[in-house]
């Protein structure tokens, strides 16, 4: 059992939790993820790692309630436990393999969308610890769902904010912001984009046009997360890859995003039905498309 | 009861029509009278061929002799000398090609039902509360076992009996490996059988820590240094599912058998109450002819689908256990043999709506000695379906290899074993089961776990 030692509401439906998991805190590196089960009957849900504290033996996760399982997780409080908390899974970012001198020479731009901000924070913080400060564009639909602003500012060289409705920072999505930075003469050796697949797709189209190598982190459907089930497969450069053992980070210019997005819809109606059942309990009667 | 010495005492099974709609165990096993009647057919050969056919060398005539005298406890003690998971083996071993395949009775009549007798002994012992006995004294040495599947559980059990302090690290949230995620409830009940067998291994003093992915959460070298283990056994099992690389394979409704079975077995998705989703197909095509294909087919059937098995060779070459094929047919699975998929078609939303197949014929024998299938020209045809499950085997998981220095793997990715006892190229590290051989059977993995326990014992006692 893995105890929750801190819980914070970051924005509507977005929660931060510190969880006691010393083994993972000890071995985690930026780019890796977790699989979490809320209780003994829970589904295995992949979540990103936002931060880890080796001394305290805790791992920080950020979760957005999008289905029944994440809603159950959000209902847990300090002192409650997750039944299972497995990781760190997947390969660490390729940046962790670079010699320090090379890393310091690189000009890197991160693009974080929505709760994708959490894993970007882990990468920026690690880079800062290596003496490498990167720029970051943090995007959201609107100001009220921008998360971890102070924390992000503290680990970035420049933090640019972009909101679709213009309520804070640049008015427009992350692509508008990137184009603006480019037009102002900013140049980068590498762009790392983490967020919703649709955002990663369009960001990659732009960086390809601009000729900047780009890495994305693929949040696919998963079951075991250790290279056994094949649910997380996606096409990268015309080859079948598994997000859990070959990724989760891939060359963004080679990923078949349309197919990857299609695959995330696999269990959508069933998820919706379960969410309504959980939220409405015994009062659930219809609306999910599957009953009544 | 009267016994025909030439024939097996028939075993009671759930009616095929009834069981096709439930997940209860298919085979109901022998009762006392039936088991003792079957035991009475054993010739108690001086030179028992059956024992040679058993990968863990159970003293088969020995336990059957006890059974003839109604001594279940004695029979269980004999089996326990060689096997830690008899209730599992009695159910899932391919006996027809092992112990029963060599049985002298089988020359003129039918072989003794050794598997069903083993199952009777294990089940009855469990009901009587009999447990295998652990070591009287610890020897002070510690062994880490990676993976709580058949290889790991066997290796751990054997080492614990020898007095070692053993800890198993399991990546999933439940112990059992393929017994938990792969083999379905109707063949191997989880609560009644698998969990109890694992409990027996725990009772020998073996500790199991779940949710630890060795290679990620901790490395093999961490176990040998930081965590102070004297030796490590790697029993991580088979790895990534294979796909055909044909057009349409990424469509919605195409699954690996591993995913489909893991959802149903490990996560319990076959039950309506489960929170893990699974596709309940109308018409499912299962590609492949092994035990995993049969398990996926019979699971899909029970979840309401019309099920076809598509296999590129003929019935004779089906790698599955005969009993599984027989049960599948009884339940109404349709076998489309000498057939191979070439393309999966999908609707405008990406969901599978059919599959293009070609007919095959058998040509010259290939490297495996089996006649290799060749496509019949112009035989392509289309079949409607909403689900395709690929059961084509697996390739080794790269995780342990890529995170452990000095551990050599073969060209095909399996860990290299230098002798018959699982010794690897890395000092103090042993390996066995699918991680070495590639996908094989439960009992072969147990055999390898057993051999490695001996290898580790020799190594740590300085006898190597």
Largest interface: A-B, 41 and 40 residues
- What name does CATH use for the topology of the largest domain in chain B? FAD/NAD(P)-binding domain
Number of helices in the DSSP assignment of chain A: 10
User: Could you name the ranges of chain A where pLDDT drops below 50 across 5 or more consecutive residues?
Assistant: 287-292
Assembly category: heterodimer
The number of distinct helices of chain B, counting runs of at least 4 residues, comes to: 19
Largest sheet of chain A: 7 strands, antiparallel
Helix-strand makeup class of chain A: alpha/beta
Q: Assign the CATH superfamily of the largest domain in chain B.
A: FAD/NAD(P)-binding domain
By CATH reckoning, the class of the largest domain in chain B would read: Alpha Beta
Q: Can you list the strand order of the major beta sheet of chain A?
A: 6-1-2-5-4-3-7
Structural class of chain B: alpha/beta
Largest sheet of chain B: 5 strands, parallel
Arithmetic mean of pLDDT of chain A:
91
Uncertain regions of chain B: pLDDT < 50 for 5+ in a row? none
Number of strands of chain A: 16
Describe the structure.
The complex is a heterodimer of chains A (292) and B (464). Chain A is an alpha/beta fold and 292 residues long. Chain A is built from ten helices and 16 strands. Chain A has helices at 22-27, 68-74, 100-105, 117-129, 149-155, 174-183, 197-210, 243-246, 257-264, 268-280; strands at 2-11, 14-20, 33-37, 45-53, 58-64, 81-82, 84-89, 108-113, 135-140, 159-163, 170-171, 190-194, 214-217, 233-236, 239-242, 249-251. In chain A, the strands form three sheets. In chain A, strands 6-1-2-5-4-3-7 form a seven-stranded antiparallel β-sheet. A seven-stranded mixed β-sheet of chain A has the order 11-10-9-8-12-13-16, with helices on both faces. A two-stranded antiparallel ribbon of chain A has the order 14-15. In chain A, helix 5 (149-155) links the parallel strand 9 (135-140) and strand 10 (159-163). In chain A, helix 2 (68-74) packs across helix 10 (268-280), helix 6 runs parallel beside helix 7 and helix 7 (197-210) packs antiparallel against helix 9 (257-264). Chain A is globular. The N and C termini of chain A lie far apart (38 Å). By secondary structure, chain B is α/β, with parallel strands linked by helices. In chain B, the strands form five sheets. A five-stranded parallel β-sheet of chain B has the order 5-4-3-6-18. A five-stranded parallel β-sheet of chain B has the order 8-16-9-10-11. Chain B is globular and about 65 Å long.
């Amino acid at each position: 059992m893995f105890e929750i030692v801190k819980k914070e509401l970051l924005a509507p439906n977005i929660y931060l939790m510190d969880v006691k998991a010393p083994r993972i805190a000890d071995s985690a590196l930026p780019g890796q993820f977790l699989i979490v089960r809320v209780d003994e009957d829970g589904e295995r849900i992949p979540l990103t790692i936002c931060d880890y504290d080796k001394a305290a033996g805790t791992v920080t996760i950020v979760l957005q309630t999008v289905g029944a399982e994440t809603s159950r997780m959000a209902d847990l409080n300090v002192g409650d436990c997750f039944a299972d908390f497995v990781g760190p899974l997947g390969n660490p970012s390729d940046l962790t393999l670079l010699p320090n001198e090379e890393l310091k020479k690189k000009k890197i731009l991160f693009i974080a969308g929505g709760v994708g901000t959490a894993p970007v924070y882990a990468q920026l913080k690690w880079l800062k610890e290596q003496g490498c400060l990167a720029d970051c564009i943090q995007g959201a639909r609107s100001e009220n769902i921008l998360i971890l602003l102070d924390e992000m500012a503290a680990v970035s060289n420049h933090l640019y904010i972009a909101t679709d409705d213009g309520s804070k920072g640049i008015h427009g999505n992350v692509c508008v912001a990137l184009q603006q930075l480019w037009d102002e003469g900013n140049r980068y050796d590498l762009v790392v984009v983490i967020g919703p697949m649709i955002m990663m797709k369009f960001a990659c189209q732009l960086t390809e046009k601009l000729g900047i190598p780009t890495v994305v982190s693929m949040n696919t459907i998963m079951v075991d997360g250790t290279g056994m089930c094949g649910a997380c497969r996606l096409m990268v450069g015309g080859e079948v890859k598994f997000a859990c053992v070959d990724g989760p980070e891939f060359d963004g210019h080679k990923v078949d995003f349309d197919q990857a997005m299609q695959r995330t819809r696999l269990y959508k109606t069933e998820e919706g039905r379960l969410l309504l059942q959980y939220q409405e309990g015994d009062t659930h009667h219809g609306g999910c498309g599957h009953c009544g | 009861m009267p016994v025909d010495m030439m024939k097996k005492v028939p075993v009671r099974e759930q009616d095929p029509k009834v069981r096709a709609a439930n997940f209860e165990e298919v085979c109901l096993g022998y009762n006392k009278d039936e088991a003792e009647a079957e035991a009475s057919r054993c010739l108690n050969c001086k030179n028992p061929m059956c024992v040679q056919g058993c990968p863990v060398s159970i003293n088969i005539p020995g336990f059957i002799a006890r059974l003839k005298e109604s001594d279940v406890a004695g029979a269980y003690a004999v089996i326990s000398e060689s096997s830690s998971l008899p209730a599992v083996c009695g159910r899932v071993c391919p006996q027809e090609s092992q112990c029963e395949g060599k049985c002298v009775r089988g020359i003129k009549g039918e072989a003794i039902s050794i598997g069903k007798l083993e199952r009777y002994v294990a089940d009855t012992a469990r009901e009587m509360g009999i447990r295998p006995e652990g070591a009287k004294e610890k020897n002070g040495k510690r062994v880490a076992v990676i993976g709580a599947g058949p290889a790991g559980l066997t290796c751990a059990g054997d080492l614990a009996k020898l007095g070692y302090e053993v800890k198993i690290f399991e990546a999933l949230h439940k112990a059992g490996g393929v017994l938990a995620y792969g083999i379905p409830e109707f063949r191997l009940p989880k609560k009644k059988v698998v969990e109890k067998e694992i409990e027996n291994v725990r009772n020998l003093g073996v500790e199991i820590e779940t949710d630890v992915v060795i290679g990620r959460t901790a490395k093999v070298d961490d176990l040998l240094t930081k965590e102070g283990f004297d030796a490590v056994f790697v029993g991580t099992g088979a790895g990534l599912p294979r796909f055909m690389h044909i057009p349409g394979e990424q469509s919605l409704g195409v699954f690996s058998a591993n995913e489909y079975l893991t959802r149903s077995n490990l996560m319990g998705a076959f039950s309506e109450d489960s929170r893990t989703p699974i596709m309940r197909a109308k018409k499912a095509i299962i590609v492949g002819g092994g035990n995993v294909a049969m398990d996926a087919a019979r699971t899909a059937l029970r979840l309401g689908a019309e099920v076809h098995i598509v296999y590129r060779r003929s019935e004779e070459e089906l790698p599955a256990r005969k009993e599984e094929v027989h049960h599948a047919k009884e339940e109404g699975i349709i076998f489309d043999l000498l057939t191979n998929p070439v393309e999966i078609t999908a609707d405008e939303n990406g969901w599978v709506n059919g599959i293009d197949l070609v007919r095959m014929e058998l040509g010259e024998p290939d490297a495996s000695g089996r006649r290799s299938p060749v496509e019949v020209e112009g035989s392509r045809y289309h079949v409607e379906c909403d689900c395709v499950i690929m059961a084509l085997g697996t390739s080794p998981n790269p995780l342990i290899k890529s995170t452990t220095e000095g551990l050599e793997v073969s060209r095909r990715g399996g860990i290299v074993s230098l002798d018959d006892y699982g010794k690897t190229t890395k000092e103090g590290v042993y390996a066995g089961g699918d991680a070495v051989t590639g996908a094989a059977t439960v009992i072969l993995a147990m055999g390898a776990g057993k051999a490695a326990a001996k290898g580790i014992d020799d190594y740590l006692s300085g006898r190597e």
